[in-house]
Amino acid sequence: MTHRKLILTLSVPIVFIVLLGGFIVAYEMRQPPLDRLQQALDSVESARTARAEQWAGDDMQKARRHLGAAQQAIRDVSSGWWPFESYHIADSLLTESIRLSQLAAARARERLATTRDGISSDVIASRDSLGIWRSVLDSDLPRAEDESLHRAASFSVQMAEALLEKGQHEAAREYADSARVLFQTLEDKYHQHAASSRQWVRKSQEWISRTLDESRTSGKTALIVDKTKHRLFVVTGGRIVDSTDCELGFNSGHQKRISGDGATPEGMYRVTRVNGRSKYYRALLLNYPNEDDRKRFKYNLEAGVIRADSKMGSLIEIHGHGGQGRDWTDGCVAVSDRTMDMLVKVAPEGTAVTVVRAWENR
Amino acid sequence: MIKRVSSVLVALVVVGFAAGCSESPVVEFEASRAAIEDARVAEAEQYAPELFKEASDSLNAASVEMQRQDGRFATFRSYGQAESMILAARQIAEKAVVEAGAERELVRLADSTLIVEIETLIADTKQALAAAPKGKGSRLDLKVMQTDIDAAATALTAATEGYNAGSYLTTNEMLQTVKGQVTKVKSDIDAAVTRLTKK
Lengths: 362, 199
Description:
Shape of chain B: rod-shaped
Largest interface: A-B, 56 and 45 residues
Strand content of chain B: under 5%
Low-confidence stretches of chain A: none
CATH class of the largest domain in chain A: Mainly Beta
CATH architecture of the largest domain in chain A: Beta Barrel
Number of strands of chain B: 0
Mean pLDDT of chain B: 87
Distance between the termini of chain A: 143 Å
Order of helices and strands of chain B: HHHHHHH
Distance between the termini of chain B: 124 Å
Oligomer: heterodimer
Number of strands of chain A: 8
Structural class of chain A: alpha+beta
Number of helices of chain A: 9
């Protein structure tokens, strides 16, 4: 009896200990998905270094949310007392977090690459535009404002290229955009100029006819300067007897408006003085401004096209020191010194000098 | 006697369990997380990226270790390793804050030096341009060169805005680019002025 009682008494703690041991073993056997958790944490970190927060913010936020939820799910299961509860919800959330963070990283890289390629294409296109506009400007009479626009665009393109190389995409884009705006302005100005040019070309034909008629009638010599072709024609008895290269003002793409604008005036003039000892070898002074120039100046002044304190300018000459291969004067016509020697002989005071935008059909 | 033995056994088990229980270092973990957040605010991601990553990795590893221990039976939980990792993460994050601050100050100083250098370059270039012979043959060159100086000055103004906004690292690269461009503009203008002077 005592023996049975002893067994009965001992069996309670033994059963308790056995049950407890089984419980502990079952508890220890369940494993939170730690490898996957580490993988998810690494994926999020990797996406962060790929600047996913900046380039794929939504995906990154979702990945972080899933990771947080998974960690909470692990904690919930771990803090529960039932040893057979599984971590499958946490596992699914971690898997989704990994997928989302990998997606975020991939999207970030892709968007970064697309942005870089887009800016790069813009910069390459701008570089091409620079070349095209250089050819356009070089093939036309010089216009100082357009040259300045081209130069400013060139600066912007160079900045964009340098910044792109350093990975400063936003700043590079700003300079590429700035270059594009400058090219657009250049194009607008080019079209405006082309429209205004047409009226001066039409006038050119009228002035040439009158000059040729006068020379034919009087048998006298006249000089015709074709700005577009950079040629000076010597006409006698209405016929061209000689022609030579000439250079013009640095802003000759325009009709002259004011003093210092660098444009060579277009119109019908006369030689008012033959200067045998000019600063520029020899010179024929013209009667610029003529009546038409004065009227145009007054009109522009009243219309507010030019500033109120603008001056008309004077001292427009045909002079020597030409042959520099570019339009460099302040508005005068420059020819070679040898040509000047010839001109002072054939073009005395009173000689007609007609300066035109273009002599068509010649 | 037997009853007493079994009571002692049960009591021992209970005491053993109670003694085995240890607390998850949640408070320390949160403090470390806050330290990393401080490092982020101090722009350590940009100015001390390696330390920032090290701190983040350490905290992540600590998080995994905590979860590992949380999953164990209470008696066997031991958070010693997690606590070390959490402490390390916090210390590294604090170091990152200090280092980021120092690096930021260095970059700021470099930026301000660059700004002065570029301003001087632009002033010198303007002076060279002002001293260039003006007259026939040089007006277009001077006009176009003025465009370069204006563009350089505008670029400097844009870069200085970044400096004033505290974006020193981005501004630094921008300023270096501007300096490269202004140096090029200056050498172009110097060459052109020399050419014009010789005429």
